[in-house]
UniProtKB/TrEMBL annotation:
The keyword Signal does not apply. It is a single-pass membrane protein. One of its GO terms (cellular component) is plasma membrane. The gene is yajC. Its main location: membrane. The chain crosses the membrane at residues 6-26. Keywords: Cell membrane, Membrane, Protein transport, Translocation, Transmembrane, Transmembrane helix, Transport. This is Preprotein translocase subunit YajC. It comes from the Bacteria. One of its GO terms (biological process) is protein transport. The keyword Protein transport applies. SMART domains: YajC.
Length: 104
């Protein structure tokens, strides 16, 4: 190997290493987080509790392809949102709570 080739390798190997580290510490976790958010948004069902990115809280009344209708408050106001506006999903629990007298 000539001195030029060795010098070039010494220059580019740390740079390539930094790019690999950047991928594993920044890009890969971000893609994983985006996939989890997309899975959460696609798993909503009628009756689930939703919090939107604007802070509106309610229950899902109906779902279409890329939108859903959120029912809020005691007066049952209905609003239509895009799926990307979901921040958090609280799944509807079909389990009944255990009777406290049954455990005694």
């Amino acid at each position: 190997m000539s001195a030029e080739t060795t010098s070039m390798l010494v220059t580019f190997v740390p740079l390539i290493g930094m790019v690999v580290l950047l991928y594993f510490f920044m890009i890969r976790p971000q893609k994983k987080k985006e996939k989890q958010a997309a899975d959460m948004r696609n798993s909503i069902e009628v009756g689930d509790g939703i919090t939107t990115i604007g802070g509106i809280v309610g229950r899902v009344a109906s779902i279409k392809e890329d939108t859903f209708v959120l029912e809020t408050g005691s007066d049952r106001v209905k609003m239509r949102f895009k799926r990307w506006a979901i921040q958090d999903v609280e799944k509807l629990s079909l389990d009944t709570p255990a009777d406290s007298s049954a455990s005694k």
